[in-house]
Request: fold
Amino acid sequence: MPNDLRLDETDRAILEALSENARIPNNKLAERVGVAPSTALQRVRALREAGVLRGFHAEVDLAALGRPLQAMVAVRLAVHNREQIETFTSVVRQLPGVLTVFHLAGATDYLVWLAAADAQDLREFVVDHLATHPAVAHAETSLIYEHRRGPGIWGAAEPSS
Reply:
């Protein structure tokens, strides 16, 4: 985001609305934030061009894709040099089943969020790609029972009905 870009209340309202529903029609977005449809469209375009809006994503039922088992794998690297960190990050992000890679400060260097077909698939992923990777000193897997989005930075979640 450019340093000189200042988000006003309209920009923030647009971002909140899009965070709740990225498929909201432009006329409904404009109505919700109290601007003309042309203004809403221009504001969204400006937010994209400035890099504030970085993408629109679909939330997919992973079980429907044959990957119902999710896990977080905490990874500690053996050596902490820039080349090894960049190589590990690049390689892990490309592995099948990896949803997100978090690079952390602290005792754990990475959290790898992944989706697997079953326990055997998860085991093979961890053994083949993490535990035996030359940069990895330790990998610890935690199963995810349930994953639900929170309200993000916009405040308290609405009660479910």
Notes: Residues 37-49 form the longest helix (13 residues). DSSP finds five helices and four strands in the chain. The CA atoms of residues 28 and 37 lie 8 Å apart.
